[in-house]
């Protein structure tokens, strides 16, 4: 069945919204500490896939196994407790709390008071948020809010991190920093990254999975994926049958 | 340690101020006004309970008076049966707390949305009003306590020293007890909001989905907050039954439910001081209006509410503390008024 070095596996995962099939029979598997990029045009089902993995959406059919545990019908907080952290597409933070409070709430979900404080401090230093600790997150720039959310996810010390467009709205500098952070966090956690920024993906990618119309189109190295005719058609919007 | 003391400095100051007021007021206020003032203090506890669950928990409960009324009835029925008031006092806190927990369990775990939550809690209050109103007649008796329908329960025995039913609380005593309870609830809530639990409750108000993705079961935290709010409202109900020595289904009425919300709106959500200030101010105005014949009291109160919603939407306390903060009085204000952060 599930191989021991497999941290995440989906079997025949499917999500329908009325007549619309957002995700159709996806079999996906991820190894421990693997770094995977997920690409695909808008509406390919990437975010829906992430939302099902974190129990924000219930699958129509299929199964999700995390670390050997069936989490198909779990609650979001249970999935988080098992060790999946997610950064959603739109910065999903506590706008009326300060940076320090945001990160403290995250860190205290896993640790006691003293360890949470140390962990929070460490994460803020690593992400360069120390100067902003007392600021309300709602007053920060888009890129900074992305960092806060990233910091919250990292503070959870998850076994699997899902990042939905982590570099969106960031400057080139910030994007480089994000890539660096992802590589570092990857030493202890498996990561799946959804991105449109190909430069960014080239910086971090090992294996790339391409989603198209709710299905896995191809799964291979970045070079092979870039050279693939089908992927080009999908991204350039050329129809397959004419 | 130093940081800790500074953090609690405002709380210590507020406690000292509260105690000073408690001791000074009976000396400077005339006895008739003291009767009024005691009821303000009791209602301020009720206002605080809604200030907690709405202002911090983000749960808009239109039926906070349900728990208030249940607390009052629980006390009245129990004290008539037991004679001694110790257990009835505890019941007036525990019974509405459990009732809130039960109601909250069904509503939060079914993920009922805000608007429906308001509608359902209001309906529960009105159902209680009808049910208690329908209990006239000798067959509606709990132990030796007749429920009395719309006439209510008259001659509710007062609180007494634990184990000594003959040592009943005097009217001055009720003022001091209510004041101490208000202070205790205020201090207790401030400490609670500083704890991890309080932090999570506020985080859930800010962004429920994010809190859940961080591993917190929002349903559970809301349930506990709601139950605490219910218990506090019940305590206020018990004191209210003592104040009037009488309790009737009117406590479950629409007017009573609406009143609490108005106090919190006028005083300011997202603070604990706000609901207390709002409660005192509105009740004082209502008392003054009741003493004159020129204008209809409800008309004036309605105008005040509309004025506040339009002109001071944040409420008195947040508006004043924001203004002072802008005038660089921040260090002083921050210690007296708890940090306020509400969308």
TrEMBL record, chain A:
> Which key words are in the record?
ATP-binding, Nucleotide-binding, Transport
State what protein this is by name: ABC transporter ATP-binding protein
Q: Which GO terms describe its cellular component?
A: plasma membrane
User: Does the record bear Transcription regulation in its keywords?
Assistant: no
Question: PANTHER family annotated for this entry?
Answer: CONSERVED COMPONENT OF ABC TRANSPORTER FOR NATURAL AMINO ACIDS-RELATED, HIGH-AFFINITY BRANCHED-CHAIN AMINO ACID TRANSPORT ATP-BINDING PROTEIN
**CDD domains, per database record:** ABC_Mj1267_LivG_branched
Write out the GO MF terms: ATP binding; ATP hydrolysis activity
Q: Where is the ABC transporter domain?
A: 8-238
Q: Which SUPFAM superfamilies match?
A: P-loop containing nucleoside triphosphate hydrolases
In terms of InterPro entries, this protein maps to:
AAA+_ATPase, ABC_AA/LPS_Transport, ABC_transporter-like_ATP-bd, P-loop_NTPase
Q: Which Pfam families match?
A: ABC_tran
In its keyword annotation, does this UniProt entry include Transport? yes
UniProtKB/TrEMBL annotation, chain B:
Alphabetical UniProt keywords: Cell membrane, Membrane, Transmembrane, Transmembrane helix
Membrane in keyword set = yes
Where in the cell?
Cell membrane
Primary localization class, coarse: membrane
- Gene Ontology molecular function: branched-chain amino acid transmembrane transporter activity
GO CC terms in record: plasma membrane
Q: Where are the transmembrane segments?
A: 40-59, 66-83, 89-108, 115-132, 167-189, 223-248, 260-282, 294-312
What the entry lists under InterPro entries is as follows:
ABC_transp_permease, LivM-like
Its record classes its membrane topology as: Multi-pass membrane protein
Q: What is this protein called?
A: Branched-chain amino acid ABC transporter permease
